[in-house]
Design brief:
There is one protein chain. Helices cover about 45% and strands about 15% of the residues. It has helices spanning about 15-25, 45-55, 70-85, 100-120, 140-145, 165-170, 190-200, 215-220, 260-265, 290-330, 355-360, 390-415; strands at about 95, 130, 150-155, 175-180, 205-210, 240, 255-260, 270, 280, 335, 345-350, 370, 375-380. Strands 1-7-6-5-4-2-3 form a seven-stranded mixed β-sheet, sandwiched between helices. It is globular and about 75 Å long. About 50% of the residues are buried. The structure holds pyridoxal-5'-phosphate. The site of pyridoxal-5'-phosphate (PLP) has 13 residues, from helix 4.
Length: about 425
Protein backbone atom coordinates (compact mmCIF):
# COMPACT_ATOMS: atom_id res chain seq x y z
CA UNK A 1 0.00 0.00 0.00
CA UNK A 2 1.50 3.37 -0.96
CA UNK A 3 1.54 5.60 2.10
CA UNK A 4 -0.18 8.96 2.10
CA UNK A 5 1.16 12.10 3.73
CA UNK A 6 -0.97 13.60 6.46
CA UNK A 7 -2.21 16.82 4.91
CA UNK A 8 0.20 19.58 5.90
CA UNK A 9 -2.69 21.93 6.68
CA UNK A 10 -6.15 21.23 7.96
CA UNK A 11 -9.16 21.68 5.68
CA UNK A 12 -12.45 23.40 6.44
CA UNK A 13 -15.46 21.17 7.14
CA UNK A 14 -17.40 22.67 4.22
CA UNK A 15 -14.62 21.59 1.88
CA UNK A 16 -14.41 18.13 3.45
CA UNK A 17 -18.16 17.67 3.34
CA UNK A 18 -18.15 18.46 -0.35
CA UNK A 19 -15.33 16.01 -0.99
CA UNK A 20 -17.05 13.31 1.02
CA UNK A 21 -20.33 13.83 -0.82
CA UNK A 22 -18.44 13.42 -4.08
CA UNK A 23 -16.78 10.27 -2.77
CA UNK A 24 -20.23 8.86 -1.99
CA UNK A 25 -21.55 9.43 -5.50
CA UNK A 26 -20.90 5.80 -6.45
CA UNK A 27 -22.37 4.35 -3.25
CA UNK A 28 -25.45 2.18 -3.07
CA UNK A 29 -28.59 4.27 -3.40
CA UNK A 30 -30.73 2.60 -0.73
CA UNK A 31 -32.91 5.64 -0.12
CA UNK A 32 -34.74 5.34 -3.44
CA UNK A 33 -35.92 1.80 -2.77
CA UNK A 34 -34.36 0.66 -6.05
CA UNK A 35 -31.79 -1.37 -4.17
CA UNK A 36 -32.90 -4.73 -2.87
CA UNK A 37 -29.74 -5.51 -0.95
CA UNK A 38 -27.41 -4.39 1.83
CA UNK A 39 -29.74 -1.98 3.60
CA UNK A 40 -32.43 -1.94 6.27
CA UNK A 41 -34.58 1.11 5.92
CA UNK A 42 -37.55 2.12 8.05
CA UNK A 43 -38.41 5.74 7.27
CA UNK A 44 -36.81 9.21 7.38
CA UNK A 45 -38.56 9.82 10.73
CA UNK A 46 -36.98 6.73 12.31
CA UNK A 47 -33.60 7.71 10.90
CA UNK A 48 -34.02 11.15 12.42
CA UNK A 49 -34.66 9.68 15.87
CA UNK A 50 -31.68 7.33 15.54
CA UNK A 51 -29.41 10.15 14.42
CA UNK A 52 -30.45 12.47 17.22
CA UNK A 53 -30.09 9.77 19.83
CA UNK A 54 -26.75 8.69 18.36
CA UNK A 55 -25.44 12.25 18.46
CA UNK A 56 -26.34 12.66 22.14
CA UNK A 57 -24.06 9.80 23.24
CA UNK A 58 -21.62 9.37 20.37
CA UNK A 59 -18.61 10.59 22.36
CA UNK A 60 -19.43 8.42 25.36
CA UNK A 61 -17.75 5.06 25.76
CA UNK A 62 -19.79 1.88 25.97
CA UNK A 63 -16.77 0.11 27.46
CA UNK A 64 -17.27 1.78 30.81
CA UNK A 65 -20.71 1.04 32.30
CA UNK A 66 -19.72 2.51 35.66
CA UNK A 67 -18.79 5.83 34.04
CA UNK A 68 -21.92 5.87 31.89
CA UNK A 69 -24.81 4.41 33.86
CA UNK A 70 -27.12 5.81 31.17
CA UNK A 71 -25.52 3.54 28.53
CA UNK A 72 -25.60 0.61 30.93
CA UNK A 73 -29.31 1.16 31.42
CA UNK A 74 -29.99 1.56 27.69
CA UNK A 75 -28.13 -1.69 26.98
CA UNK A 76 -29.91 -3.60 29.72
CA UNK A 77 -33.31 -2.34 28.62
CA UNK A 78 -32.67 -3.03 24.92
CA UNK A 79 -31.57 -6.56 25.81
CA UNK A 80 -34.57 -7.10 28.10
CA UNK A 81 -36.99 -5.91 25.41
CA UNK A 82 -35.35 -8.23 22.89
CA UNK A 83 -35.58 -11.14 25.33
CA UNK A 84 -39.26 -10.36 25.82
CA UNK A 85 -39.85 -10.51 22.08
CA UNK A 86 -37.89 -13.73 21.66
CA UNK A 87 -39.31 -16.04 24.28
CA UNK A 88 -36.87 -15.24 27.07
CA UNK A 89 -37.93 -16.21 30.60
CA UNK A 90 -37.37 -14.07 33.70
CA UNK A 91 -33.87 -15.50 34.18
CA UNK A 92 -32.76 -15.01 30.58
CA UNK A 93 -29.76 -12.77 30.00
CA UNK A 94 -27.98 -11.08 27.15
CA UNK A 95 -25.50 -8.56 25.87
CA UNK A 96 -25.69 -5.70 23.42
CA UNK A 97 -22.99 -6.24 20.80
CA UNK A 98 -21.90 -4.30 17.74
CA UNK A 99 -23.49 -6.61 15.16
CA UNK A 100 -24.59 -10.05 14.12
CA UNK A 101 -21.05 -11.29 13.64
CA UNK A 102 -20.13 -10.37 17.19
CA UNK A 103 -23.36 -11.83 18.59
CA UNK A 104 -22.69 -15.15 16.85
CA UNK A 105 -19.06 -14.94 17.97
CA UNK A 106 -20.07 -14.56 21.61
CA UNK A 107 -22.34 -17.60 21.33
CA UNK A 108 -19.39 -19.61 19.97
CA UNK A 109 -17.25 -18.35 22.85
CA UNK A 110 -19.86 -19.57 25.34
CA UNK A 111 -20.21 -22.98 23.63
CA UNK A 112 -16.47 -23.49 23.49
CA UNK A 113 -16.00 -22.40 27.10
CA UNK A 114 -18.73 -24.73 28.34
CA UNK A 115 -17.15 -27.66 26.47
CA UNK A 116 -13.72 -26.73 27.81
CA UNK A 117 -14.98 -26.70 31.39
CA UNK A 118 -16.68 -30.04 30.84
CA UNK A 119 -13.53 -31.50 29.28
CA UNK A 120 -15.60 -32.57 26.30
CA UNK A 121 -13.21 -32.31 23.38
CA UNK A 122 -10.83 -35.27 22.93
CA UNK A 123 -7.08 -34.59 22.91
CA UNK A 124 -5.80 -33.66 19.48
CA UNK A 125 -9.19 -32.38 18.29
CA UNK A 126 -10.62 -28.86 18.18
CA UNK A 127 -14.16 -27.99 19.28
CA UNK A 128 -16.52 -28.48 16.38
CA UNK A 129 -19.62 -26.59 15.29
CA UNK A 130 -22.19 -28.43 13.19
CA UNK A 131 -24.15 -25.98 11.06
CA UNK A 132 -26.38 -26.10 8.00
CA UNK A 133 -24.69 -25.16 4.74
CA UNK A 134 -26.83 -22.01 4.74
CA UNK A 135 -25.45 -20.67 8.05
CA UNK A 136 -23.81 -17.27 7.95
CA UNK A 137 -20.01 -17.17 7.48
CA UNK A 138 -19.66 -15.45 10.85
CA UNK A 139 -19.57 -18.95 12.40
CA UNK A 140 -16.56 -19.90 10.29
CA UNK A 141 -14.98 -16.57 11.13
CA UNK A 142 -15.57 -17.15 14.84
CA UNK A 143 -14.21 -20.69 14.51
CA UNK A 144 -11.12 -19.31 12.80
CA UNK A 145 -10.49 -16.90 15.67
CA UNK A 146 -11.42 -19.30 18.42
CA UNK A 147 -9.56 -22.42 17.30
CA UNK A 148 -12.76 -24.27 16.44
CA UNK A 149 -13.93 -25.89 13.20
CA UNK A 150 -17.25 -25.87 11.37
CA UNK A 151 -18.87 -28.85 9.66
CA UNK A 152 -21.38 -27.53 7.14
CA UNK A 153 -24.15 -30.01 6.46
CA UNK A 154 -26.19 -30.06 3.22
CA UNK A 155 -29.72 -28.70 3.62
CA UNK A 156 -32.94 -30.33 2.48
CA UNK A 157 -34.62 -29.79 -0.86
CA UNK A 158 -36.39 -26.59 0.10
CA UNK A 159 -33.31 -25.08 1.67
CA UNK A 160 -34.09 -25.79 5.32
CA UNK A 161 -31.53 -27.42 7.60
CA UNK A 162 -31.74 -31.20 7.77
CA UNK A 163 -31.71 -32.14 11.50
CA UNK A 164 -31.15 -35.86 10.82
CA UNK A 165 -28.13 -35.09 8.65
CA UNK A 166 -26.87 -32.69 11.32
CA UNK A 167 -27.28 -35.42 13.96
CA UNK A 168 -25.21 -37.76 11.79
CA UNK A 169 -22.50 -35.10 11.50
CA UNK A 170 -22.11 -34.85 15.29
CA UNK A 171 -18.93 -36.50 16.51
CA UNK A 172 -17.15 -36.59 19.85
CA UNK A 173 -15.50 -33.18 19.28
CA UNK A 174 -18.80 -31.47 18.48
CA UNK A 175 -19.77 -28.81 21.00
CA UNK A 176 -22.40 -26.73 19.23
CA UNK A 177 -25.26 -26.89 16.75
CA UNK A 178 -26.55 -23.91 14.81
CA UNK A 179 -29.85 -23.12 13.13
CA UNK A 180 -30.94 -19.93 11.38
CA UNK A 181 -34.20 -18.05 11.71
CA UNK A 182 -34.22 -17.29 8.88
CA UNK A 183 -31.12 -18.20 6.88
CA UNK A 184 -29.71 -15.48 4.70
CA UNK A 185 -29.62 -17.29 1.33
CA UNK A 186 -33.25 -18.48 1.24
CA UNK A 187 -35.14 -16.60 3.96
CA UNK A 188 -36.51 -19.81 5.50
CA UNK A 189 -36.57 -20.67 9.19
CA UNK A 190 -34.69 -23.88 9.96
CA UNK A 191 -36.49 -26.61 11.96
CA UNK A 192 -35.20 -25.18 15.22
CA UNK A 193 -37.20 -27.54 17.48
CA UNK A 194 -35.70 -30.61 15.82
CA UNK A 195 -32.14 -29.27 15.81
CA UNK A 196 -32.51 -28.24 19.46
CA UNK A 197 -33.76 -31.74 20.31
CA UNK A 198 -30.64 -33.23 18.72
CA UNK A 199 -28.50 -30.80 20.74
CA UNK A 200 -30.33 -31.43 24.00
CA UNK A 201 -30.12 -35.22 23.62
CA UNK A 202 -26.33 -34.95 23.35
CA UNK A 203 -25.74 -32.11 25.80
CA UNK A 204 -24.57 -29.76 23.03
CA UNK A 205 -24.93 -26.00 22.84
CA UNK A 206 -27.68 -24.85 20.50
CA UNK A 207 -27.55 -21.39 18.97
CA UNK A 208 -30.23 -19.79 16.82
CA UNK A 209 -28.96 -17.14 14.43
CA UNK A 210 -31.91 -14.79 14.20
CA UNK A 211 -29.88 -11.78 13.11
CA UNK A 212 -32.27 -11.21 10.22
CA UNK A 213 -35.44 -12.52 11.82
CA UNK A 214 -35.17 -11.41 15.44
CA UNK A 215 -37.07 -8.20 14.78
CA UNK A 216 -39.34 -9.43 11.99
CA UNK A 217 -40.53 -12.93 12.92
CA UNK A 218 -42.24 -11.92 16.20
CA UNK A 219 -44.19 -9.23 14.34
CA UNK A 220 -44.94 -11.43 11.34
CA UNK A 221 -46.43 -13.89 13.82
CA UNK A 222 -48.40 -11.13 15.57
CA UNK A 223 -49.77 -10.13 12.18
CA UNK A 224 -51.32 -13.58 12.00
CA UNK A 225 -48.91 -15.49 9.81
CA UNK A 226 -47.51 -18.87 10.58
CA UNK A 227 -43.95 -18.77 11.85
CA UNK A 228 -42.35 -22.02 13.05
CA UNK A 229 -41.05 -22.05 16.64
CA UNK A 230 -37.60 -20.48 16.56
CA UNK A 231 -36.78 -18.66 19.77
CA UNK A 232 -35.79 -19.17 23.41
CA UNK A 233 -39.18 -20.70 24.15
CA UNK A 234 -37.97 -23.79 22.28
CA UNK A 235 -36.48 -26.25 24.80
CA UNK A 236 -32.80 -26.85 24.19
CA UNK A 237 -32.03 -23.44 22.69
CA UNK A 238 -29.12 -21.97 24.67
CA UNK A 239 -28.54 -18.71 22.82
CA UNK A 240 -29.85 -16.49 20.05
CA UNK A 241 -28.67 -13.52 18.06
CA UNK A 242 -30.96 -10.73 16.85
CA UNK A 243 -29.75 -7.64 15.05
CA UNK A 244 -31.07 -4.27 16.07
CA UNK A 245 -29.27 -2.71 13.11
CA UNK A 246 -31.17 -4.88 10.64
CA UNK A 247 -34.95 -5.10 11.10
CA UNK A 248 -34.70 -3.42 14.50
CA UNK A 249 -34.04 -0.35 12.29
CA UNK A 250 -31.44 1.01 14.70
CA UNK A 251 -28.21 2.68 13.62
CA UNK A 252 -25.33 0.43 12.60
CA UNK A 253 -23.39 -1.16 15.43
CA UNK A 254 -26.18 -2.80 17.46
CA UNK A 255 -27.20 -6.41 17.91
CA UNK A 256 -28.24 -8.57 20.85
CA UNK A 257 -26.96 -11.96 21.90
CA UNK A 258 -29.38 -13.64 24.29
CA UNK A 259 -28.71 -16.53 26.64
CA UNK A 260 -31.19 -18.86 28.26
CA UNK A 261 -29.88 -17.80 31.68
CA UNK A 262 -27.24 -15.77 33.45
CA UNK A 263 -24.97 -18.81 33.94
CA UNK A 264 -24.75 -19.32 30.18
CA UNK A 265 -24.05 -15.66 29.60
CA UNK A 266 -21.32 -15.72 32.27
CA UNK A 267 -19.36 -18.08 30.02
CA UNK A 268 -18.62 -15.09 27.77
CA UNK A 269 -17.22 -12.94 30.54
CA UNK A 270 -13.55 -12.12 30.10
CA UNK A 271 -11.78 -10.88 33.21
CA UNK A 272 -8.18 -9.91 33.70
CA UNK A 273 -6.25 -8.12 36.37
CA UNK A 274 -2.62 -9.16 35.95
CA UNK A 275 -1.36 -5.76 34.84
CA UNK A 276 -0.63 -2.50 36.59
CA UNK A 277 -4.08 -0.96 36.22
CA UNK A 278 -6.03 -3.76 37.84
CA UNK A 279 -9.33 -5.24 36.83
CA UNK A 280 -10.57 -5.32 33.21
CA UNK A 281 -13.74 -7.19 32.31
CA UNK A 282 -15.96 -7.41 29.22
CA UNK A 283 -18.69 -9.60 27.78
CA UNK A 284 -18.08 -8.54 24.19
CA UNK A 285 -15.16 -8.85 21.81
CA UNK A 286 -14.33 -5.16 21.48
CA UNK A 287 -13.17 -2.62 23.99
CA UNK A 288 -13.97 1.02 23.42
CA UNK A 289 -17.13 1.56 21.42
CA UNK A 290 -19.36 4.47 20.73
CA UNK A 291 -22.29 5.06 23.05
CA UNK A 292 -24.14 6.36 19.99
CA UNK A 293 -25.06 2.93 18.66
CA UNK A 294 -26.37 1.96 22.10
CA UNK A 295 -28.45 5.10 22.64
CA UNK A 296 -29.79 4.99 19.08
CA UNK A 297 -30.90 1.37 19.52
CA UNK A 298 -32.69 2.21 22.78
CA UNK A 299 -34.35 5.26 21.22
CA UNK A 300 -35.54 3.46 18.08
CA UNK A 301 -37.02 0.58 20.12
CA UNK A 302 -38.97 3.09 22.19
CA UNK A 303 -39.84 5.36 19.29
CA UNK A 304 -41.33 2.55 17.25
CA UNK A 305 -42.88 0.45 19.98
CA UNK A 306 -44.90 -2.60 19.08
CA UNK A 307 -47.32 -0.71 16.87
CA UNK A 308 -44.47 0.90 14.93
CA UNK A 309 -42.78 -2.44 14.30
CA UNK A 310 -46.08 -4.02 13.30
CA UNK A 311 -46.70 -1.24 10.82
CA UNK A 312 -43.22 -1.47 9.30
CA UNK A 313 -43.36 -5.26 9.18
CA UNK A 314 -46.76 -5.02 7.48
CA UNK A 315 -45.28 -2.73 4.84
CA UNK A 316 -42.36 -5.08 4.26
CA UNK A 317 -44.81 -7.98 3.93
CA UNK A 318 -46.93 -6.08 1.46
CA UNK A 319 -43.88 -5.74 -0.83
CA UNK A 320 -43.02 -9.40 -0.17
CA UNK A 321 -46.53 -10.57 -1.08
CA UNK A 322 -46.81 -8.41 -4.19
CA UNK A 323 -43.49 -9.49 -5.63
CA UNK A 324 -44.03 -13.12 -4.65
CA UNK A 325 -47.46 -13.19 -6.34
CA UNK A 326 -45.98 -11.65 -9.48
CA UNK A 327 -43.13 -14.17 -9.53
CA UNK A 328 -45.57 -17.05 -9.02
CA UNK A 329 -47.55 -15.79 -12.01
CA UNK A 330 -44.51 -15.68 -14.33
CA UNK A 331 -44.08 -19.25 -15.65
CA UNK A 332 -40.33 -18.88 -16.21
CA UNK A 333 -39.66 -17.72 -12.62
CA UNK A 334 -40.33 -19.25 -9.24
CA UNK A 335 -39.66 -18.82 -5.52
CA UNK A 336 -37.01 -21.12 -4.09
CA UNK A 337 -38.22 -23.06 -1.06
CA UNK A 338 -40.52 -21.45 1.49
CA UNK A 339 -39.18 -18.11 2.64
CA UNK A 340 -40.70 -16.95 5.91
CA UNK A 341 -39.37 -13.46 6.14
CA UNK A 342 -37.70 -10.56 4.47
CA UNK A 343 -35.68 -12.47 1.89
CA UNK A 344 -37.32 -13.51 -1.36
CA UNK A 345 -35.22 -15.95 -3.42
CA UNK A 346 -36.23 -15.94 -7.10
CA UNK A 347 -35.09 -18.77 -9.37
CA UNK A 348 -35.41 -19.24 -13.13
CA UNK A 349 -37.45 -22.05 -14.63
CA UNK A 350 -36.04 -22.57 -18.10
CA UNK A 351 -34.65 -19.04 -18.11
CA UNK A 352 -31.24 -17.72 -17.10
CA UNK A 353 -32.15 -15.87 -13.90
CA UNK A 354 -28.85 -13.98 -13.95
CA UNK A 355 -29.74 -12.65 -17.41
CA UNK A 356 -32.99 -11.43 -15.80
CA UNK A 357 -30.88 -9.85 -13.05
CA UNK A 358 -28.84 -8.01 -15.68
CA UNK A 359 -31.99 -6.84 -17.41
CA UNK A 360 -33.24 -5.51 -14.04
CA UNK A 361 -29.93 -3.71 -13.53
CA UNK A 362 -30.32 -2.17 -16.97
CA UNK A 363 -33.65 -0.80 -15.67
CA UNK A 364 -31.94 0.87 -12.72
CA UNK A 365 -32.40 -1.76 -10.00
CA UNK A 366 -29.57 -2.90 -7.80
CA UNK A 367 -29.77 -6.66 -7.71
CA UNK A 368 -28.20 -9.20 -5.42
CA UNK A 369 -27.44 -12.75 -6.54
CA UNK A 370 -27.05 -16.06 -4.79
CA UNK A 371 -25.11 -18.77 -6.61
CA UNK A 372 -26.42 -22.03 -5.15
CA UNK A 373 -28.83 -22.38 -6.92
CA UNK A 374 -28.74 -19.30 -9.17
CA UNK A 375 -31.07 -16.87 -7.42
CA UNK A 376 -32.07 -13.22 -7.52
CA UNK A 377 -31.89 -12.46 -3.84
CA UNK A 378 -34.30 -9.76 -2.75
CA UNK A 379 -33.88 -8.25 0.69
CA UNK A 380 -37.12 -6.42 1.33
CA UNK A 381 -37.69 -3.33 3.41
CA UNK A 382 -40.77 -1.34 4.38
CA UNK A 383 -39.93 1.25 1.76
CA UNK A 384 -40.31 -1.37 -0.97
CA UNK A 385 -44.06 -1.30 -0.31
CA UNK A 386 -44.20 1.95 -2.29
CA UNK A 387 -42.16 0.67 -5.17
CA UNK A 388 -43.18 -2.99 -5.47
CA UNK A 389 -45.57 -2.30 -8.39
CA UNK A 390 -42.77 -0.72 -10.39
CA UNK A 391 -40.47 -3.62 -9.51
CA UNK A 392 -43.05 -6.11 -10.72
CA UNK A 393 -43.63 -4.24 -14.00
CA UNK A 394 -39.90 -4.13 -14.64
CA UNK A 395 -39.51 -7.80 -13.72
CA UNK A 396 -42.14 -8.82 -16.28
CA UNK A 397 -40.45 -6.66 -18.90
CA UNK A 398 -37.00 -8.01 -17.99
CA UNK A 399 -38.21 -11.60 -18.33
CA UNK A 400 -39.80 -10.76 -21.70
CA UNK A 401 -36.51 -9.20 -22.88
CA UNK A 402 -34.47 -12.23 -21.86
CA UNK A 403 -36.98 -14.64 -23.39
CA UNK A 404 -37.00 -12.65 -26.64
CA UNK A 405 -33.20 -12.60 -26.76
CA UNK A 406 -32.84 -16.31 -26.06
CA UNK A 407 -35.65 -17.04 -28.56
CA UNK A 408 -33.75 -15.04 -31.18
CA UNK A 409 -30.51 -16.86 -30.27
CA UNK A 410 -32.28 -20.23 -30.58
CA UNK A 411 -33.72 -19.41 -33.98
CA UNK A 412 -30.22 -18.34 -35.15
CA UNK A 413 -28.88 -21.70 -33.96
CA UNK A 414 -31.64 -23.50 -35.85
CA UNK A 415 -30.97 -21.58 -39.04
CA UNK A 416 -27.19 -22.19 -38.79
CA UNK A 417 -27.88 -25.89 -38.23
CA UNK A 418 -30.18 -25.87 -41.25
C1 LIG B 1 -28.23 -14.68 9.17
C2 LIG B 1 -27.13 -13.69 9.44
N1 LIG B 1 -26.37 -13.83 10.53
C3 LIG B 1 -25.37 -12.98 10.81
C4 LIG B 1 -25.10 -11.91 10.01
C5 LIG B 1 -23.95 -10.99 10.33
O1 LIG B 1 -24.41 -9.74 10.71
P1 LIG B 1 -23.47 -8.46 10.74
O2 LIG B 1 -23.14 -8.14 9.32
O3 LIG B 1 -24.31 -7.45 11.45
O4 LIG B 1 -22.24 -8.78 11.50
C6 LIG B 1 -25.88 -11.71 8.86
C7 LIG B 1 -25.64 -10.58 7.97
O5 LIG B 1 -26.31 -10.36 7.00
C8 LIG B 1 -26.92 -12.63 8.57
O6 LIG B 1 -27.68 -12.50 7.48
Amino acid sequence: MPTLPLPAHGAAWTDLRQRMAEAASGDLDWRSGRATRNAWVASPQVHHVAEEAFRLFQWDNGLYPSSFPSLKRFQEEAVAITAGLLGGAADSAGTLTTGGTESNFQACVAAREKARREGRVPAGRVPRIVAPRTAHPSFDKAAWYLGMEVARVPVGEIGRADPAAMARAVDDATVMLVGSAPCWPYGCVDPIEDIAAVAAARGLWMHVDSCVGGFTLPFIRKLGREVPPFDLSVPGVDSMSADLHKYGFAAKGASVVLFRDEARKALTRFTFDDWPTGSYATEVFNGTRTGGAISAAWAVLHHLGEDGYLKLTGRMLSAFDKIKAAVDAIPSLGIFGRPHAAVLPVVGRGIDVFAVAEAMEARGWTVSRCKEPPIIHLLLNPLHADIADRYVDDLRAAVADVAAKSGAARSREVSYAG
